[in-house]
Amino acid sequence: MNQNSTTAEAISRLIQEFNKLPGIGPKSAQRLAFYLLREQPEQAKSLADAILNVKQQVKLCSVCFNVTDTEPCVFCRNEQRDRTKICIIEQPQDILAIEHTGIYKGVYHVLHGAISPTEGVGISDIRIRELLDRFQSNTVQEVILATNTNLEGEQTALYLQRVITPLGIKVTRLARGLPFGTELEYADDVTLTRAFEGRQEF
User: Fold this and answer.
1) What's the pLDDT score for residue 186?
2) N or C: lower Cβ tally within 10 Å for the chain?
3) Could you tell me the pTM of the whole model?
């Protein structure tokens, strides 16, 4: 194929866009681009539509800041969830890992990051103020800190413990079944279940 043709330029651009995605290296990006080239046009259109729909329809829940296409999200509007417990996580995908275990029945709060001075992420850059606003209802009895077990996650957990404990709310941390450096979304069900069951006051 002539590399100067419009088609080759289009493929090259697609490879570059795939390569920007996390976990997709140059070889994987190339495979994905040529896979789509071989597929029927309907397959490519379906993928493009799904990507556009995510950007156009998905927003953040005004209560917990989970990603959602309804307001509020499915967890916040579910009356069966235990609103006396809030599990604090760094990213929306962490909810998928926790829900897969089936052990937790409370509600969530998504910070959308962790405190990281080296990367310029401070307290005001994540959803901490909105979390503190949720305590005004006086219904929360326990906050479960489920930030990642790395340096940034630990810094964030320590800060939250210092500001929440004086409010008279019990603060717990997932048990050390999660090895240091583990990101929650990659933990297996058994490890996560044990971490919830063995959570300790923080």
Assistant:
1) 72
2) N
3) 0.76
